[in-house]
Amino acid sequence: MGPDDSPFGPRLLPGGGVRFALVAPAWDAAWLEGVDPAGTVHRRLAMARDGAGVFWVDDPEAGPHTLYRFAGPNGAIPDPASRHQPFGVDGPSRVPAACRPPDWPGRPWAEAVIAEIHVGTATPEGTFAGLEKRLDHYAGLGLTALQLMPVAAWAGGRNWGYDGVLPFATVQPYGRPEDLARLVAAAHARGLMVFLDVVYNHLGPAGNPFPDPWPGLFHPRLATPWGPAPDFSRPLARRLVIDNALHWLETMNLDGLRLDAVDRIIADGPTPLLAELAARVAELPGRPRHLILENDANQAHWLARDARGAPRFHTAQWGDDGHHAAHVLATGERGAYYGDFQDDPATHLARALAEGFAYQGEASPHRGGAPRGTPSRHLPPAALVGYLQSHDQVGNRAFGDRLDSLAPAPAVAALEALFRLAPQIPMLFMGEEWGARTPFLFFTDFEPALGEAVRQGRLGELVRLPGFPADPRRTPPPDPQDPETFAASRLDWAEAETPDGAARLARTRALLAARRRHVVPLIDRLTRAGSWRRFGAAGLSVLWRAEEGAHISVTANLSSHPAAPPDPWPGPPFWRDGRPGDPWSVEWRAA
């Protein structure tokens, strides 16, 4: 292999044939086996080994659609860097056809309006092809990006995606990698970016092929609550993740990645993995790619900007603090992590909107008084993704309740106007645009013993999370292993055609049109925190100023009781729900 060849996954050779590679430091010998769908071996080639334990072989007879596996001292395994597993994670791997994506200039981050989507439940088909049929819906509303929950192959047919074990392979129930490539091309043709949620802090509990050939991938003593933790002090482990990120961004032509729970990357090297990954992505030619973090630790340095205002490392982070404060205001819930926001949720929300994080080193009651977060006033608003619902906040409730099932309609409407028009980047969870009432539940499809362990573990988690029933014996949470739990989570698109659904879609469309006209042109010029003030029990007013004097502001009373508002900020209003100070009123101004 050449020094620039990736040791992860098959590569079609220019003159025909395929180069296969396998990282297997624990093996002394390895063979490539060509197989049929039943697993019968019809060709076996010995592989060469280098000093790092990387095996490789060129097979002139292989090509697109070839089925193969690797054999070693302890038997045969699928390619850990497989691109497609047509018969499941334990079956043979398949060489995909070459993807030749059309040119696409991308979109600037300031224009991003994101829809978070679980491919398996977003449409009746539950496939990439099924989602492709719905792209006009998202583009027509004014959304500009789809963020797919993880698609890396996992064991079984039903999963949120965070139990992936083959990080390069698209999971078979959704379709082939060629189907994902077509979805991405079709989205780009409609002006939609496509982001992908990726998981680098662990691998799932079933079907993981890495431990036999490469036990050193995982830290011998450290683990996450969800699975073994990769040891990123090892160069090949780091390359696995970086090559994976580049695969999705280059080969599959995606526009960005959302990195799940990066605060749980617990075995790192002298150069942080997040820094190295960001540097490698920044080197990609052509359009910019966007990197989004989920980081419960609120580490602002990963979101810092350079002198030109470009991200030094990562583009943005999910704004959990803003969500939590808004949820407390809308629902009155105070349990679990919402306890950090119960004392004065409007102040927490005002600070999160203006400064990025509500917790910037203050003591967290939910964490036993430990400090949480770092100062974030130096960040621009667009370094945060603001949202009212997500797979986490809906799905980690015992019954998968959406906000519309928990809060009065005026509260939801006010918060939608607040979050859709704020200069942070807005995100909607699939179906939120029409006020979907279908739950989003936790579901899995593991073999019985593991399924029972997951079932009991999930109950133990739910006791500590919002929405757990007072008497779980009388109203038990849905069984994650029951296929009906998955079926109940599928969006009901007929809701969008009801009078209430149509009205909500019209409001979403109007809010996003107002955002394009009044907010988006200012976002890149808003380079620092806003200023905020409070009034009444739950009133807030925030002003963001651009360097040359332009500004945008909001005044909102997030309460069912009237309150006297402060004097308005300068500029004419461009969106108004109610009169300032009325219950659940919102007024936006720009100048």
Automatic annotation (TrEMBL):
Pfam families to which the protein is assigned, alphabetical: Alpha-amylase
Compositionally biased spans, kind Pro residues: 563-573
Transmembrane feature ranges: none
One GO CC annotation: cytoplasm
Listed GO MF terms: 4-alpha-D-(1->4)-alpha-D-glucanotrehalose trehalohydrolase activity
InterPro entries to which the protein is assigned, alphabetical: GH (IPR017853), GH13_cat_dom (IPR006047), Ig-like_fold (IPR013783), Ig_E-set (IPR014756), Trehalose_TreZ (IPR012768), Trehalose_TreZ_E-set_sf (IPR044901)
Keyword Flavoprotein appears in the UniProt entry: no
Record has Hydrolase as a keyword: yes
Pathway: Glycan biosynthesis; trehalose biosynthesis
Catalytic activity: hydrolysis of (1->4)-alpha-D-glucosidic linkage in 4-alpha-D-[(1->4)-alpha-D-glucanosyl]n trehalose to yield trehalose and (1->4)-alpha-D-glucan
Broad enzyme group: hydrolase
EC code(s) of this entry: 3.2.1.141
Domain Glycosyl hydrolase family 13 catalytic: 116-509
GO biological process, one term: trehalose biosynthetic process
Keywords assigned: Carbohydrate metabolism, Cytoplasm, Glycosidase, Hydrolase
Gene3D superfamilies in alphabetical order: E-set domains of sugar-utilizing enzymes, Glycosidases, Immunoglobulins
Subcellular location: Cytoplasm
Region spans: Disordered: 558-581
UniProt site (Transition state stabilizer): D392
Stated family: Belongs to the glycosyl hydrolase 13 family.
Protein name: Malto-oligosyltrehalose trehalohydrolase
Species this chain originates from: Roseospirillum parvum
